[in-house]
Specification:
Helices cover 36% and strands 17% of the residues. By secondary structure, the chain is an alpha+beta fold.
Length: 433
């Protein structure tokens, strides 16, 4: 791994919290992600299953974690299984975890080789009455290909039909919604790296550069600072492209007079940052661009203050809509009369702002969460207002990452340049030099 070692107390505490939520005489089983085929005999870079990583920190393929808090066998309450290495594997694939490595990283004392899993797991399952399965339950996505956890779930249910089965995801969602101090430190690392990359591209952007060249500068800064890479496909959208919400082709030339919208974030130790900035290609906003930019920045500054304990996301979104409607009136894109007469099921602001204002952030850029639970201290959100005016070739989105505290929202990205004067000054200093 590129990142620095993580304090195993994070994973020890996460397991304790998870096991406290399990029903009596239950066993929970977590499989690592598959290695995903790219083409021929090559794979995409491996990314660990977030649930398994959250509970163990074991960032290696072919790993299984088993939790059985009521196990009658001494020492079998927490177990990890890892890939048995060999001289051949070491020569062709490189170093793999030893049992001692797995113990040190995870804080799990009992570690077996993966080829020992069938016999050990069979005995433990027969000692249990309930099995927790770690199936995929992301509310934004329905997978078409069964994962390793899903395949294992089907196999277990066929082999042990008399057991009762439960879902691990509801427990994981509730636990992962509120971040511990150690998690926030890892997230801050991802954010710091992302900020360095943004400052780097402010020095680089000028008329004539290609969008993919900007992406390359970001990637360079990520990797040299120990990030795993990008937390998601970066959006580098200049000109008309900045009105395309998930534009990832990044293959156009940046022209003088245009804006370039950049939505990117580093992943550090499997924790994501999520930043969006929009800057003028030539280093100077036009009056209209500046007018829209100021409106979006005002919404960001006001909306993030609404992320407080006790509020619901639905209430928060309704309050933010009012900010957008006022801004769109000021920008002469809508009138008060039009808004007062709009149909309830087709609000007019959605013509210019059609995505969500905030989402949970953590090990996934759209993190697991209960979207109907009240906002609590320790929750980490994005705040990402945008205004998109295709007919004017203006698409501006600004996004920061906000942690909810009992003392008020804390902006993790407050030190990353966002004010238009600062951006223009930083870009023009490079031009003059």
């Amino acid at each position: 791994m590129k990142y620095h070692p993580i304090n195993p107390e994070l994973f020890v505490n996460n397991r304790k919290r998870f096991m406290r939520k399990m029903q009596p005489e239950s066993i929970a089983i977590f499989y690592s992600n598959d290695q995903m085929l790219r083409s021929g005999d090559t794979y995409h870079p491996f990314r660990q299953n977030s649930g398994l990583f959250y509970l163990s920190g074991l960032d290696q393929e072919d790993t299984v974690v088993v939790l059985f808090p009521d196990c009658i066998k001494e020492g079998y309450q927490e177990i990890a299984f890892i890939k048995r290495t060999s001289d051949y594997i070491a020569q062709w694939e490189g170093y793999k975890f030893s049992k001692e490595d797995a113990q040190r990283i995870s804080g799990i004392n009992k570690v077996f080789w993966l080829d020992e899993l069938p016999q050990v797991l069979h005995e433990l399952i027969l000692l249990s009455k309930r099995i927790y399965l770690n199936t995929e339950e992301h509310d934004r996505f329905i997978p078409l290909t069964p994962s390793r956890n899903m395949r294992a779930a089907r196999q277990l249910m066929e082999q042990y039909p008399a057991h009762k089965y439960h879902r691990s995801q509801p427990i994981l969602k509730k636990l992962m919604m509120t971040k511990s101090v150690l998690e926030l430190e890892l997230t801050q690392q991802a954010i710091n790296i992302t900020g360095k990359a943004f400052r780097r591209v402010l020095e680089f952007i000028k008329p004539g550069v290609m969008e993919f060249e900007i992406e390359a500068e970001i990637t360079h800064e990520f990797l040299r600072n120990r990030a795993n890479g990008h937390a998601y496909d970066p959006i580098i959208a200049s000109g008309a492209n900045n009105c395309v919400l998930h534009y990832i082709q990044n293959n156009q030339e940046c022209q003088s007079g245009d804006l370039v919208l950049m939505d990117f974030g580093a992943e550090y130790a499997n924790y994501a940052a999520d930043l969006t900035r929009t800057v003028p290609v030539n280093g100077q906003f036009t009056p209209r661009q500046r007018e829209v930019y100021d409106a979006v920045l005002k919404i960001l500054n006001e909306a993030k203050q609404m992320l407080v304990p006790g509020a619901t996301l639905e209430e928060y979104k309704k309050d933010v809509v009012q900010l957008f409607e006022s801004a769109l009136i000021d920008l002469k894109l809508l009138t008060r009369k039009e808004i007062d007469g709009q149909p309830a099921d087709a609000p007019l602001y959605k013509k210019y702002f059609m995505h969500g204002i905030s989402h949970f952030l953590g090990m996934e850029v759209h993190d697991l969460a209960d979207h109907y639970a009240p906002i609590q201290a320790g929750m980490l959100f994005t705040c990402e207002p945008g205004i998109y005016i295709p007919e004017e070739q203006i698409g501006i989105r600004l996004e920061n990452n906000i942690i909810v505290t009992d003392e008020g929202p804390f902006d993790f990205m407050a030190n990353i340049p966002i004010h238009p004067e600062e951006i223009e000054e930083m870009m023009n200093v490079q031009v003059l030099s």
